[in-house]
User: What shape does this take?
Amino acid sequence: MRHRRAVPLLAGALVLAFATLVFAFRTSPQAVALTNCDAPADVNTAAEQQLLDLMNQARAQNGAGPLKISTNLQRAALWKSADSSAYGNPPQFSHTDSLGRDTVSQPPNNRAIDCGYPTWAAEDIGWGFGTAQAMFDAFMNSPGHRANILDPTSVVAGVGLIYQSGTPCWTVDFGQVDDTGSGGASTATPTSTANSSPTVTQTATASPTETATPSPTPTRTSTPTHSVPLNAGINLVTFQGPSQSVESATGSLGSDLIAVYSWDAATQTWQVYITGGPAYVQRLHSLEAGTAYYFIMRTGGAWQY
Assistant: This one.
C-alpha cells in the first residue's frame, strides 16, 4: 500500500450473483508477465468510461479539472484487475501485484512505469461491485478513495474493469503528469448503460490511508548558486550544495516536485521525501553534497539552490 498519497483498498460483497450480460465485458483474462505489462486491451468499455464520467462530474462539482484517459495508466489498471492479486477466495486484494509491483515504488517494482507512465500513480481498487455507479458510490463513501478521485493535482487516469470468474474487479490509477500529448480533457460519453447485474446488497469495507496534507513551500533565505534543468517525470541529479534539509534545498521547485529518492547502500533501502507528505512517510531528511538523487517532477523546470 502506498504511503505518499491515499492508496486505499475497497472490497464489496464476497458472494455475488451475476446475469448472463457479463459476456459484454472482459471475462477472466490472464495478465501475461512477458513484458510485465501485457493487458487485455487499452480501450475503455462503457462501464469503465461511465466510472470516469462519474468521477469527472464529482471533480467538477468540487472545483477540480477533468481527468483524461492515459493509455499507459489504462494498461496498468487493466493489468492489475486481470492479475491474481485482484481476485481470490477470499481475494488477496492488495495494491502489490503478483510480480511484487505497486504503482509507487522505484523501478523495476513500479507497475505504472512498466506500462509506460513516466512516474508513480495513486490507485483505488474495488472488488464485487457490479456497476460503475455502485463502484463510484462506494469509493465516494470512503474518505481515502474520495480523496484520490477529487485530488486537484491529478490530470490523467486509467480505469480497468475485469470480470474474474464472474466477479468484477476494478482498478483506477491516477496520475499527476499528463502523458497524453493533448491539452484537451476526455469528453467521451458511455455508449451504453452499465451492465445489468441483478441487484445485490453490498457492504463496502475500506481501509484507506489518509490523504497527505500539503505543507507550505519553504521560504528561501539564500541566493541560489546552481540551476539544474529538470524534466517532467524521473530525473537523476547530483546535489552540489552544502548539506541542508530537503525542504530548504528544493524550495524553488514548490509543488512541481513530487518526490525525491536516494538509495541507501548501507541498509539496501530507498530513502524518500514526498512533497507535502506526512512525517511518517518521510525517510529522507537532508541532501548531501556529491550524492545522487532521483527527482520525480510533475512538470519540467529549473531547480535552483
Notes: The CA atoms of residues 70 and 157 lie 6 Å apart. Confidence is low (pLDDT under 50) at residues 1-34, 183-221. The longest helix spans residues 46-61. The longest strand covers residues 156-164.
